[in-house]
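Q: My hope is that you can spare some time for a protein that puzzles me. Underneath my words sits a plain record pairing an amino acid chain with its backbone structure tokens. Those tokens are not coordinates but codes from a learned vocabulary of shapes. Thank you; the sequence and its tokens follow:
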Amino acid sequence: MIKYVFNRLLSTIPVLFGVVTLVFFMLHFAPGDPARTVLGESATQPEMDRKREEMGLNDPLLVQYGRFLSEVVRGNLGTSYLTDGPVLDEVLQRFPATLLLTIFPVFVMVVIGIPTGIISAIEQYSWWDKLCMVIALAGLSLPTFCWGLLLTLVFSLTLRWLPPSGFYGPRYWILPSLSIGLPAVALLTRMTRSAMLEVIRQDYIRTARAKGQVERKIILHHALRNALIPIITVIGLQIGVQLGGAMVTESLYAIPGLGNFMLEAIKGRNYPVVQGGVLFIAFTFCILNILVDIAYAFVDPRIKAQYKAGRRSKSVSIFTGLSSRLSARFGHERKN
């Protein structure tokens, strides 16, 4: 398992390299001048030239790219154009708010989506199943910002139960979490229902019922455990999507998180902040994918058995090749 994790970590290097390269050239080919953003519209051309030289923007693009890669290798994501502070420190300062905005929607998604999908699969074609599927379809059809506007209109402006913006305490976390979590609940409900319907028709489920086992134990111990692989996949992907798509929600609710910070950096042509933020999110997403793959082995013993069998077969092939080479060598020495 340690070797597998190490190999997966190595495989993230080309992914991060591709992400950094794509974002770097897209930003530098986009219209706009960071020096103009820093100095303002009233700056003169000599002031602009001095500032561009100070920021290193007059160097050839490949030189700037090589300088950025060398800084990344040393663990430095650059310096912000606006604050002159290290980008990594500013990213880490704002990441906890984004992480909270990701954890709570995932909690909402798991608590509501999995039980609803299980009940819909058990009660297939019932009024409950049809109602849940209609609500799930509506949840998938509306984007996150629509949910945010509707929830703010109902619970903040009309009922005045919750604050409309900010991120200063648990009451401020409810609306953003629901705005992100409700579309994810709809997706997880449909996936859980589909996976459970495929599992509960298997022969071993009928055998368990024929043996007289309790229905709750059959559903939770046998059916749900074997249906968890696609469910875990959806949960892992949704965590990554919410990390990367937090810009809209954070901007809507004025949350001082990483997404809102990067959105302001894009508007201000603050290249180091955008590049560092994207690289940080991409690295986090790669780590999440590795954790999801590890979770597969704990949920489904067959995956762990396949991994061990593959390792044994590789060891046998290495031993066989070594034996054949030694035999050929000794046979050649006997002939001589």
Summary: Confidence is low (pLDDT under 50) at residues 313-323, 328-336.
